[in-house]
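go over both lines:
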Amino acid sequence: MKKILVLLFFSGSFFISYGQSLKDLFLNMPQQLCPSLSEYNRLEIVDNQKNGKPMQTRNLFKTISEMKALTNQYAHLVISQNSEKKMMLLTKNDSTQIIMIISTILSDSIADSSVSFYTTDWQPIQASDHIDEPTSDDFRKISINPSTLRLTITTSNPLVLQTDGSNKPAKKSAETHQTFVWNLEQNKFILQ
């Protein structure tokens, strides 16, 4: 009987850790990845969703943070008027899952994003293993479409003025767009 209970315990633990949703992972996210939200704040957001209330909480800086979208695979969290995180649960070709976080800071309507990857127990993974990001000193806005797993990186440098040949500024910045799609065979976002 003890052997059966031990077996059930371990098989149940495997199921819980393997079958986690992004909601579960968000609740267990280390606070250093989002310092303004305590464990209580994250729990309040998820409870508000369960109760049909706005997914908001008063964060540790006494401002309102709001979850704009929260599903088993995707989350869009507006931490403040200048900061947001988008999280996506990605499945690899061996059926394991990883978490991608896109962190964006806004300053004077200019967005600058970074992307990071984690195991489902929140251990960091080298980002270059899962995406070949363009390298530059320009600002990057990164977005993802959760239904198509298309990731778009818009690069701009608002400090560089383009001219139309008459020495008058024609644009404030030049933008380039690159689109990547999640490739299950390579476990990586591939440039399209």
Q: What stands out?
A: The CA atoms of residues 36 and 61 lie 6 Å apart. Residues 2-18 form the longest helix (17 residues).
